[in-house]
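Support case: user asked for a sample of complex input and structure output to validate their parser. Sending the pair below.
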Amino acid sequence: MNWFSLLFGSEGWGSLLLEGAVVTILLAVTTVPFGFGAGLALAVLKLSPNRVVRGLCEAFTTFFRGTPDLLSLFIVYYGLQALIDRVSKLIGLSSPIELNAFVAGVIALSVVAAAYSSEVWVSALKAVPKGQHEAAHSLGLDAKKTFLFILMPQLVRIALPGLGNIWMVLLKDTSLISTLAVIDLLRAASEASKNTTRPILFYSAAAAIYLVFSILSGVLQSRLERRANRGFA
Amino acid sequence: MLDTLHDSAAALLNFEMMSRYGWRLVDGIWITTQVVTLSVTLGFLIAFLVCRARMSRNRMLSGAAISYITFFRGTPLLCQLYLVYYGAGEIRPLLTNLGVWWLFREAFVCCVFAFSLNTAAYQAEIMRGALSSVPKGQVEAAAALGLSQFRISRHVIWPQAFIVALRPFGNELIAMIKSSALAAIVTLLDLMGETRFIFARTFDFLIYVYAAIIYLVIVEIIRRVWGLIERSCSRHLIVATGETQSRGQDEGRICRAGRHGLSHGGAPQGQRA
């Protein structure tokens, strides 16, 4: 069969690849709020006056930034499963709970993204001048409002380039999930190439789709940055 | 209760597993070292060419270099690795005719091949950034002094670019060490591969934690050594007053995260002040 019908024909593998691509995007997009959110929380804790809290958060970041992403994912994925098994045994559940692979993937990616993004958030938090807090306080804003309306808009502007980089890494890291039980884009390409013995065709197709995602992300990122910086010369 | 405690203590320090499989980890570290050293070195040579092409005035050349860089930075390394590893099998007749099949038959060679091409794309961008950070006036001044093209490169541009590139190169080396764990997926028994092997035999989750700690230690050592190199290379740039010096040391640190530090724009960690 020629490559065109292998990809786009009625018996072709194009639809599987597309489904995989959707899973890849879903994985990455679902991870963002959890990963970046947890990263921000970590960053706030890292700046806390409590030494123990600070140390724990630093240790967490150091661990997940210093080990290969693949290994981190394995640790979170298998560790989570082991933990759930233990807990369900403790409460005396007869049938063990199987962790949904997609959910486990999102959790694992979130942990890695949180560790990476917390560094970006920390430097952003440090970059917002102290006077901003004081001004908000003297205007009578409470902590929540200060955070939402004063801190957040400035944080996002400063953190955007760094977060954009982490998004790019995250997008590519989703491919590591293919070694677990999720059929993402790369796994779909693997299935297709195993069944047709045409790995070059299908991995190139997958690479092309990843490339489109990356380029679109780059465009979106520069748009967002321009928007966030519109008040600045 | 006591049983559980005893169990967890035994589980926390699984001596039996380590005495039986510990040497496998050492072998794994050696393979990882080989893969990373070869890839980064070969990648540097390729990056040099790609960087020259990227900065050339020839539209064709620079376009080709941009495509190369975009492709290798925009797609997952695992995808590239599969492309090389499984792709080599598909074009086996061709490779046999070229007389290189015996090379691409080995997972080790496929890994080094894919990793070198990948890191070359990143290193080329580092080089370009460093080279273009040297002020134009330096080149003009050197030319006005009558230095030859080669001498301008050798004695004026490269020494200055080197200092700028040093930290991103360190980050890239660290990123490569971490990425090299992917080799385990294509059956290579590097540190990650041996770890997976041991896990498959013992089902002791702890081995993953041990492996993570080993990676962490390797990365930390490189980070420290790199910090020392950078400080000794840029010692003429550090002002020797108390406050500035301590800040200078702080800036001399390279970040653990590897490629996350190589940001464009305002992310502070990878940028030189």
